[in-house]
Amino acid sequence: MCGLAVMVGLGGRQADAGVLKRMSDSIAHRGPDDSGLYLHQQVGFGFRRLAILDLSPTGHQPMCSEDGEFVIVFNGEIYNYIELREELRAAGHCFRSTSDTEVLLAAYRQWGPECLSRLNGMWAFVIHDRRRGVLFGARDRFGVKPLFVHHGKDAWLLASEAKAILASGLYVRETNWQVAADFLLHGKLDETPATFYAGIEQVPPGCAFEIRLDGTSRQWTYWSLSDIEPEPLPDAEEAIAELLEGAVRLRLRSDVPVGVCLSGGLDSTAIICAMARNRGVRDGGVRDGRQAAPPLLAFCYHDAAFDERAFIADTLSQTGAQLQRISLTPQGMWESLAEVLRFQDEPIVSGAPIAGFHLMKLAASNGVKVVLNGQGSDEVFAGYSSYFHDHWYTLLRSARVARAWHEMRAYAAERRANAGQLFLYQLARLFHHQLRRLRPYRSVARTRRWRRLKEKRWFTPSLIDRLDTNDPGYEEPHLNAVLRRSVERAPLPHYLRLEDRNSMAHGVEARLPFMDYRLVSLAFQVAADRKIQGVWNKALLRRGLRGRIPDSVRDRAEKMGFPTSLHIWLTSVLAEPLRDILTSRAARERGIYNVQEMLSVLQNNHRVEPETALRLFHVAEFELWDSIHRG
Known about the structure:
Elements: E1 2-9, H1 17-26, E2 34-40, E3 43-49, E4 63-64, E5 70-78, H2 81-90, H3 100-111, E6 121-129, E7 134-139, E8 148-151, E9 155-159, H4 162-167, H5 177-186, E10 201-202, E11 207-212, E12 217-221, H6 236-250, E13 258-261, H7 266-278, E14 281-282, E15 285-286, E16 297-301, H8 309-319, E17 322-326, H9 330-344, H10 352-365, E18 370-372, H11 377-381, H12 386-397, H13 401-415, H14 419-436, H15 439-456, H16 461-464, H17 479-488, H18 492-504, E19 509-511, H19 517-525, H20 539-544, H21 551-554, H22 566-569, H23 575-582, H24 585-590, H25 595-599, H26 610-630
Parallel strand pairs: 13-16, 13-18, 16-17, 18-19
Antiparallel strand pairs: 1-3, 1-9, 2-3, 4-5, 5-6, 6-7, 7-11, 8-9, 8-10, 11-12, 14-15
Helix pairs in contact: 2-3, 5-26, 6-7, 6-19, 7-8, 9-10, 9-26, 10-18, 12-13, 12-14, 13-14
């Protein structure tokens, strides 16, 4: 896991060592162990290395092939590099190092762009193919590793973080107000390749590209969830559990210590239990039994309002892991916000990422350079409570009314809700979505939403008018379709961004077993009605984990993750610093807020709904973000 910077000069401009040094220095936190530079006419690479596999100088980047025809910069990990290396050796390739970077470079030499289908891992890389006179690059299937691009007048610039492009001296900062409006008005983040910086975009997940030296380029999708069709899989639960076990085992391949982020929930518990079972296995063999394995370290955030200690205790008892715990005061969380935004480059969804930032800091302070985490499980296996509604819709849409009613009754009994009201709501939703298939109805609905935005009076028309007015078309709320959008559009891309920047801020590599493409592919082959059953979300995963994790965790229905009490703090102890930002000169002169309308929410310290508090937080952090990255 590292940080890369790329420059391709245009119009006769040569690659500039000064530009590349500024870019790579700005992301030095991503690679504190080594740095490198490559210049060849108009092509230049800068690199910062975080040494995880092959800690010796032979893992140095930029890495050149023996004949000098290929040069690579690579951020990420190829988890199946050992198996690929053996296959490539059989094909005649020789290796000077034990790094996955050299394996990736050889894979491209052997198979060209088709090498991507053979990789299991997370990656963003660029290869200068001097033989063909092109730069070839790609981002992993789900976008776990970032890659930003700016096509300027004088050069193509690519980098692991947007701040590197800002630091290049070849980009003039300008806010992308359509992205900003989507965030301030609707809370949207990372749903498209566009960023908060006009002219800087992300290479989409699952995409590869070529840039020719004349400045022309092409980009294509090499992998997509849409290519996966449901199949009858009677033993899917056991297969999923075994694939997860294998995904964890692969992600334990490391030459540095590996830890885990732990909550009391299903996902992190499944990971740490699999880690405990597989810690003696490495690279297909068994560690020397005479060497005591270092303790398995687990890192946990604790908020007194969301106490999961009993579940965590059961997990620690089963795994023998040692727990390192942190908590944050309201003031501590608020004071951390500016630092988090500095590393994130763009606004964040809530206060939870601040807790995640400090968890990674805790891991680094304990000498851990690799952390396993559970991102992706909720979106792949249907973990959010909103998915129950999509599940019931899917049942009703396919005329399975009796099952839908039975499951709604079970859910209502568990959550102390009214089953009849749930059923009527789902019928109304079914009717509403049949209307939404009609373009004229969507047009009327869009006009009404526009009017409601202006009636809320928090924002001026000058911001509202920045929103995209195009009809996005009809989107079916069938559960599998919703899960696919969750993985490809929201919320997973944002959570992956948070995970990457939070971990790399402290020189820690985050690995995500639930993002193993084999596991995701299998989950999307399973019929939707097996993913939620009765009161149970993640039904496939729960059944597969029987006997593998504590029953107290497997049988709990509620979900917490790494929650914080930010929405309560914002209208109490943090109301004053929030008010200071809203009344600042910069906020008033921006001309997009009705500040008095916002301030009225904070009057008399009355209770504010979490959604309203979150909207206030978004405004405050947007102002803070702007001041940080404009300065």
